[in-house]
Write a structure and sequence with these properties.
It is globular, with a radius of gyration of 15 Å. With 138 residues, it is mostly helical. The longest helix is centred in the N-terminal third of the chain and has 28 residues, at 25-52. Helix 2 (25-52) crosses helix 3 (57-74), helix 3 (57-74) runs antiparallel to helix 4 (81-96) and helix 4 (81-96) packs across helix 5. The model has no long low-confidence stretch (mean pLDDT 83). The chain has one domain (3-124). Helices cover 71% and strands 0% of the residues.
Length: 138
């Protein structure tokens, strides 16, 4: 399944045409989590494919999930949490793809740019409740 196909399925799942009659908060949270993870996966996949020429979409989704966990664990550290989280997030990319620190950082910046564009496009379609899980700053 291509990232574009996943985006179309995501838009259909989120019901751009209208909300379901009986939406539950837990169901909504699961859909937002899954959608955000897919968007983060798309961003990392596009960036890693362009910069490193490596990786499958599934690898990018796992990288996004691991990056989100690392970020959540380290971001709360007083004074240096943001910096530690950012370095650890780039470290996750370095670990998951055959690149060094510099190219891992470039993948991170490119993933942020792709996620920003994807989220803006989804907002134009009426899906504004998503983030890009696993991509900081989105």
């Amino acid at each position: 399944m291509t990232p574009l196909t996943l985006a179309v399925v995501l838009v259909e799942l989120l019901g751009v045409a209208g909300p379901p009659a009986q939406a539950s908060p837990l169901g909504d949270s699961i859909i937002v989590f899954a959608g955000s993870l897919l968007v983060g996966g798309v961003a990392i996949h596009v960036a890693a494919s362009y910069v490193a020429g490596a990786g499958e979409y599934g690898d990018a989704v796992i990288t996004a999930l691991l990056g989100a966990v690392v970020w959540a664990l380290l971001d709360g550290v007083p004074l240096v949490g943001g910096l530690l989280a950012l370095v650890a997030w780039v470290g996750v990319i370095k670990w998951r793809y055959p690149v060094g620190w510099t190219r891992a950082a470039i993948i991170g910046v490119a993933a942020w740019a792709v996620a920003t564009v994807v989220l803006a496009a989804l907002a134009l379609l009426g899906v504004g409740s998503l983030d890009a899980l696993g991509v900081p700053g989105t």
